[in-house]
Amino acid sequence: MGPTMPPSKKAQSPSSGLGATRGLSPLYREAEAADLSLSLSASFSKAEDEELTSLSWLHESTDLLNSFSHSGLRSVSPLQDPDGHPLPPHSPSSSSPSPDPCDSSPYDLATGANRKPPYSFSCLIFMAIEDAPSKRLPVKDIYGWILEHFPYFASAPTGWKNSVRHNLSLNKCFKKVDKDRSQSIGKGSLWSIDPEYRNNLIQALKKTPYHPYSPGLVTPSTSPPTSPQAYHSPPLWPGSPFLRKNGGVILQVPQGVIQNGARIRSQGLFPVIRPLPICSVGSRTTAIRSALGDYLTQGNIGHPCDSPSPPPSDDLQEDHNYSTAKSPSMPCSSQGPSTLDDDDDIIAVEVGVHREVKSEPQEVPLDSASVSFLSQHARRRGLPWTKNRLRALGDTLPLKKRRSAAAAVEKPPSESDDEEMKEAAGSLLHLAGVRACLNNITNRAAKAAQKEKEQKEALRN
DNA sequence: AAAAACATAAACATCT
DNA sequence: TAGATGTTTATGTTTT
């Protein structure tokens, strides 16, 4: 970027973070996937092969489904081992011989306060601002919010404040609000979230393994989103206005509890921070996510984006300030600039299964999150073509001017939500069908067993 | 290996 | 003037 940049270093894309803290998600994701990802899909295929003659696979699968949905639901609830026994928050001395990916976390689950939170500064700032009633905060209050929710920073080196300011300045997701001189708040300005980039911040939070945006953290809403905006930018974290308006909030963490370095408050906007996934549970969930994901992808859900047409970019970092420009609208996205990647696919399945399991198939509520997630399930990563294009454009402009310049080449969102709603509904219903089928067979098996038992008893008598 | 994402440090300007 | 705030540059680390 800078003209003085060493040639060996690529023009720095000093994107202030939009993504989750690195190093966590990929590690545990991989390990999870490697663990039980085969078990469910294997079960499904086994069913086909054996023509349902054996029911062992079924119980296996059903258990997995249940545990998956439950683990998704009770994201802050007691973690369980594969047998359903509660696990301590973090057990490095786990008997598992294989390396535990969770151990690689820089996070201290036991105290939460000693280690750096698994959120990038941009996520922290975002949460702070979103937590403010007026959705705008002076830096000082952003400091305060971070300190209040992440005690780690109380004893952290003072540089973090510099990083916060650095992020505010450089991340175009954050916008300085012109301060009314009459209502001066003292030094500095108020900072707010640029609505254009809000979705991207949400996506960034989603990429954090413990993000409070996870649909798994919330109860399914029983009514559809009330505003069109909700379809595009569903604020799904517990306590969000959206949720408050549409349903309940699952909060199972006592007030004041510190988890993942976050001080949990029941009334806060981001009161729930997902605990670091314990692998025995996490691997299950990923297994199911993976298996169901494959299942859904194999022609069970058609999506316009599955066609050979160029896949949309879902690079969240396209919204970074320094040299990149706002990410473009996606031809198949109803969610604004960014689309979903594999992580989001995971969430999509999580939502679907969770809802399906919790309610009758016909009662599956379709909120914006599940709609978007499911509809984009099979989407694949695309080349961030606009990123390069816009970067080339932006590099020649002063920092803040790049934003407007980039915006000038933006295209408005074009995809209708209806199509995705239909697909999502199909996906959910399909999941519901899978589950119903499983239940059906389970019931029949149980009945058969019962009958057999009764016959034996009758014979004995 | 290169690129990208993110963190951190620091210099400097501006404002209160 | 001091300190807070805001901007920018430089560079290191880690992940993709």
From TrEMBL:
A molecular function (GO) held by this record is: cis-regulatory region sequence-specific DNA binding
The segment(s) forming the Fork-head domain are 116-203
DNA-binding region listed in the record: 116-203
Broad class of where this protein is predominantly found = nucleus
Keyword field: Cell cycle, DNA-binding, Nucleus, Repressor, Transcription, Transcription regulation
State where composition is biased (Polar residues). 322-338
Q: Where in the cell is it found?
A: Nucleus
| Region annotated Disordered, chain positions | 1-24, 72-109, 299-342, 401-423
Task: Relate the protein's function as given in its record.
Answer: Acts as a transcriptional repressor. May be involved in DNA damage-inducible cell cycle arrests (checkpoints).
> What protein name is recorded for this chain?
Forkhead box protein N3
Q: Which organism is it from?
A: Salvelinus namaycush
